[in-house]
């Protein structure tokens, strides 16, 4: 009586297999390019404001308003995509967002702070929801469940590159040319990436999968106390991370080194990216709450340690020194 041979193990899924699936590389590359303004625009707006004669406080306000308006409108765009499809939402949003970023430098001589604020808010509101759209496309472009399991890890890992490359590119363009050039390049990259995504057949064909009681289920989840607490905590974290852009500009002025305005956010994002890789590759004995408390304490300690010291007043040149009697 012969023993039955054990089934052969399933072949290991690699990121190369995911990228080799039809349309995956195109959609992921287009989404990354189209979302570069998320990492570039806040820094470019802040640099443009300060070089145009505004204070760092006003530039920081504009940068924060761009990120805030971009985030609060995402659920609305999700509903619009459910009703009208991705192309009908992504393409107009990308065109408007790019046009507004290019128009922002014109507010200096013609509109002043009020118009600049309105344009920045409008630009944030028209940011394309490419990341949400990509996640909705995974089931259609990756029918195999094992590939779909690997895709979010690849997606999440590559998103960190936006906040490494973006600030560095803005700082280099602003240092070599002018922040207006950085804003223009930001707009061009955003529109180019969005166009690549919306012209892909999976994005054009996509329609939401009907689900019973979807609206009421979503409302119940949003009313969950645990989810509300998570939103509050993420708001605090987002405030601290957003302040990094303002701090980097202050450090660049303090040390008289323009590239620091991009190097500091990029270094922070690199550390976050590497920390995420380490965190996901290990098995932890502590609870999730304990790990979050330890990570938050380490983040706070690092933030307080590296705050810029007050600028020392330089002694006057000898010609201006008071004569001794």
UniProtKB/TrEMBL annotation:
<feature type="transmembrane region" description="Helical">
    <location>
        <begin position="259"/>
        <end position="279"/>
    </location>
</feature>
<feature type="transmembrane region" description="Helical">
    <location>
        <begin position="180"/>
        <end position="201"/>
    </location>
</feature>
<dbReference type="InterPro" id="IPR036259">
    <property type="entry name" value="MFS_trans_sf"/>
</dbReference>
<protein>
    <submittedName>
        <fullName>MFS transporter</fullName>
    </submittedName>
</protein>
<feature type="transmembrane region" description="Helical">
    <location>
        <begin position="45"/>
        <end position="68"/>
    </location>
</feature>
<keyword id="KW-1133">Transmembrane helix</keyword>
<dbReference type="InterPro" id="IPR011701">
    <property type="entry name" value="MFS"/>
</dbReference>
<keyword id="KW-0472">Membrane</keyword>
<dbReference type="GO" id="GO:0022857">
    <property type="term" value="F:transmembrane transporter activity"/>
</dbReference>
<keyword id="KW-0812">Transmembrane</keyword>
<feature type="transmembrane region" description="Helical">
    <location>
        <begin position="89"/>
        <end position="108"/>
    </location>
</feature>
<feature type="transmembrane region" description="Helical">
    <location>
        <begin position="222"/>
        <end position="247"/>
    </location>
</feature>
<dbReference type="Pfam" id="PF07690">
    <property type="entry name" value="MFS_1"/>
</dbReference>
């Amino acid at each position: 009586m012969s023993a039955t041979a054990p089934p052969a193990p399933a072949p290991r899924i690699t990121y190369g297999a995911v990228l080799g699936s039809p349309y995956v590389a195109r959609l992921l590359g287009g989404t990354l390019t189209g979302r570069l303004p998320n990492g570039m625009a806040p820094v470019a707006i802040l640099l443009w404001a300060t070089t145009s004669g505004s204070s760092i406080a006003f530039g920081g306000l504009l940068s924060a308003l761009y990120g805030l308006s971009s985030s609060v409108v995402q659920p609305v765009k999700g509903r619009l995509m459910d009703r009208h499809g991705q192309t009908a939402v992504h393409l107009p949003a990308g065109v408007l967002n790019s046009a507004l970023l290019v128009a922002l430098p014109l507010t200096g001589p013609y509109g002043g702070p009020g118009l600049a604020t309105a344009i920045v808010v409008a630009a944030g509101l028209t940011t394309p929801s490419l990341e949400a759209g990509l996640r909705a496309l995974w089931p259609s472009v990756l029918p195999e469940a094992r590939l779909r399991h690997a895709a979010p890890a690849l997606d999440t890992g590559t998103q960190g590159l936006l906040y490494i490359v973006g600030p560095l590119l803005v700082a280099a363009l602003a240092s070599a040319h002018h922040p207006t050039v950085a804003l223009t390049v930001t707009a061009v990259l955003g529109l180019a990436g969005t166009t690549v995504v919306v012209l892909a057949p999976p994005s054009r064909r996509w329609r939401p999968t009907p689900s019973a009681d979807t609206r009421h289920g979503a409302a119940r989840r949003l009313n969950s106390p645990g989810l509300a607490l998570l939103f509050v905590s993420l708001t605090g974290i987002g405030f601290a991370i957003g302040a990094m852009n303002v701090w980097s500009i202050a450090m660049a002025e303090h040390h008289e080194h323009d590239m620091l305005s991009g190097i500091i956010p990029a270094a922070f994002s690199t550390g976050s990216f590497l920390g995420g890789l380490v965190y996901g590759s290990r098995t932890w004995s502590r609870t999730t709450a304990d790990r979050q408390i330890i990570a938050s304490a380490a983040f706070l300690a690092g933030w307080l340690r590296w705050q810029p010291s007050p600028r020392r007043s330089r002694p006057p040149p000898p010609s201006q020194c008071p004569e001794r009697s």
